[in-house]
Structures are given as structure tokens and as C-alpha cells.
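Researcher: We're teaching a course module on how sequence relates to structure. For the next exercise, students receive a sequence and then see the predicted structure as C-alpha cells, so they can try to spot secondary structure elements on their own. Here is the exercise chain.
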Amino acid sequence: MVSTSEGRKKLIKDFIYILKAVKDDRKDMHYIIDFLSMLLRHKETVPPTTEMVTILKCNKPILFQHLKKSILPSSPMHIVLQMNMDYETALNRLN
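Model: And here is the predicted structure for the students to work with:
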């Protein structure tokens, strides 16, 4: 069984990897959608979803805007994309 802190560290590591791997372009939206969908289903620990969405929004603004336009308002993903916090605080919480 993976400990809570190990599970959280793995999520953060995966997020950093995907953030570096995707371009700020709509063509890479499916990678982000897959990752965020996985976060919604994650049960081992409470994922730092707000922090990740905030960092995504600031680092990949074009990709983020295309994501927001493509997700239906009735989708749980729509709520996730509305999350927001201070960028510096989000960075500090993920470190």
C-alpha cells in the first residue's frame, strides 16, 4: 500500500512531467483531460487539484482556454477548471 505522502508526491511528479511535456496548444488537450480525470477518480489521498489547475492556467494559458471551451458545463471537469488560487501559493504548496 502506498502511503498518503508518497501518493501525493507521485501525483505532483506526474503533474510536473505532463506540464513539461505538453505544449501550450489545443492539440495537447487530451493529455490534460486524461490527467484531470484521473485526479477526479483518485482515492488514495486528497490531490492538490486547485494548485494544479492554477499552475496549469498560468503556465499554459492557451491550452487552458481551449480546455474551458471544450468541457460541457454539466461535466464534473467544468467545476475543476473553475478552481483558482494565488499562483505563488500554489507553487509553494506543491513544493
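Model: If you want an answer key for the exercise: DSSP finds six helices and no strands in the chain. The mean pLDDT is 92.
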